[in-house]
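=== Per-residue structure ===
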Amino acid sequence: MLQFNIRGENIEVTPAIRDHIEKKVEKIERYFTDGANATAMVNLKSYNHSQTKVEVTIPMKNLTLRAEERHDDMYAAIDLIVSKLERQIRKYKTKVNRKFRERDGIGLAFATAENDTRAQNEIEEEEEDLTIVRTKQFDLKPMDEEEAVLQMNMLGHNFFVFTDAESNETNIVYKRKDGSYGLIETSAQ
């Protein structure tokens, strides 16, 4: 069962908004065998009372679902988010079922969606998007975050993988849509 953590920035989360979000996002539970047993973190942001940004993140055991949408109508943005999440689930399900038919793991998390009416050629079109067309190899040089951002900007990329000089872990810096920078820290499990 999905739990909800709904926050609003520059917007009040009314009971009507909360009900609409819960009703729409709960639809994705049908794709999972034992229910989702996760917390859906929903952030609503209003920009000058004209445009709304809706972000939904659902971290689960073997996969994290995330989608965001900007729209003039918040309710329309929520509907579009649910469509994006359903597409992500179907894409993962198709990929996982093909690769892990014999194995345990993430494949067991997906229920068989009998009501999935998409045609086989649509699934094949999505699979074509996953084709790797180029492979690069490079040495991970130990450096700090600032040097990694400088390297990324010099190369003209929007992300850069590096070894953190202090932790010796592989990290990623990336350029965000708003022009600022983000850091993804990894750790061995």
Observations:
- Strands lie at 2-9, 38-47, 51-59, 64-71, 142-143, 159-164, 170-175, 181-185.
